[in-house]
Structures are given as C-alpha cells and as structure tokens.
Design brief:
Helices cover 14% and strands 30% of the residues. Strands 1, 2, 3, 4, 7, 8, 9, 10 and 11 form a nine-stranded mixed β-sheet that branches. Strands 5-6 form a two-stranded antiparallel sheet. The protein is α+β, with helices and mostly antiparallel strands and 181 residues long.
C-alpha cells in the first residue's frame, strides 16, 4: 500500500530533501521536518510559497498528482496587492495568456482574510496600498503559475498558500507539521 504524507511546507523551505544550490548553502529542506524514508514530493511548491505538499512512495500516484494530464485540482489562498474587480476575477476564471501559453479556466473568488498562521518573515504592509485575498483553483501546474496569473491581471501576489490538492487539505496542520494518511 502506498504511503501518503500531507505536509504543511513552511515559507522559505525547498520542496526537496537536499539543497543542490551553491556549495555551503544552508537553505531549509524537507529533511528537516520529514524523517520518512523513500517518500518524495508529488509536485512542488516554490521556496516563497507555503502550504500543502503531498509526499508519497508510489511513483504512479506521484505522477497522477503532479501531472497536468490528470487535471488534479489544486486550491490556493492568495493574498494580493489591491482589491480585485469583477473583470480581473473573470479573467482568472477564463484563463489568461502567459508567455508559455494560455492557462486553463480556473475557479476564482474574492474571500475574507483566512485564519492562517503568522508568516515568518511577515508580508510587507503598506498603508497606501490595500490588499485582499482570493481563492484560486487550477488544474495544471506551470512554473509559478498562480503568481504569474494574478500579476497578469494587475494583482501582484503577496502571499501564496496551497490549501488543497484534490480531496486532501491542510486542515489543522501548522507549518512544518505533517501527517500520514
């Protein structure tokens, strides 16, 4: 039976078990929070993104989760600079054209600020520029896609938290915590 681990990846952590960066680099990796042999991330989250990362020892399951071919929904809570208008939200729903092609249609809505953990370091705050939150569900995974989508419609991303992958969600996991399902 496949092992499946749900991890709340903290901000600043690499989505890999070793740091293959420059020699002498000491960036945090998954090995600092998950001490389970032979599991690997199904997909990835950028270092400056946080939230749900699924790990498994089953290569086929890993491919089904990560590959856009299987259209696995991934929901992100996104703090953006500015207040979205109806046109910006509709553009995200319709799909936007990025340098590497048009994104698939997404589910998108403005939401109240979610009850999340404090981020370290905190998101920058500017008195003169309001911020807001949207929920965005995509079924593909282009490089830095959510950040590029929101920027494309004039809503730069301040904080990005992956809340769910398919039927799995963060629920009560704090940053750095994981559970096996």
């Amino acid at each position: 039976m496949a092992r499946v681990i749900l991890l709340n990846k903290p901000y600043g952590m690499l989505s890999q078990f070793t740091d293959k960066g420059t020699e002498g680099s000491s960036r945090p990796t998954l090995s600092q929070v998950v001490n389970v042999p032979n599991v690997y991330p199904a997909g990835r989250l950028d270092r400056d993104s946080e939230g749900l990362l699924v790990l498994t020892d089953d290569g086929r399951l890993q491919a089904r989760i990560a590959s856009p071919k299987y259209k696995q929904p991934k929901t992100y809570l996104v703090q953006v600079e500015g207040i979205p208008d109806a046109g910006q939200l509709q553009s995200l729903r319709d799909g936007v054209t990025l340098k590497d092609g048009k994104t698939r249609p997404a589910l998108c809505e403005q939401i109240d600020p979610p009850d999340l953990w404090e981020r370290d370091p905190p998101v920058r705050y500017r008195k003169s520029v309001p911020d807001s939150w949207i929920s965005l569900t995509i079924r593909e995974g282009k490089n830095r896609q959510v950040r590029r989508m929101t920027a494309h419609v004039g809503l730069p991303c301040l904080r990005l938290v992956r809340w769910s992958v398919g039927d799995w969600s963060l629920e009560t996991l704090a940053p750095g915590e994981w559970r096996e399902i």
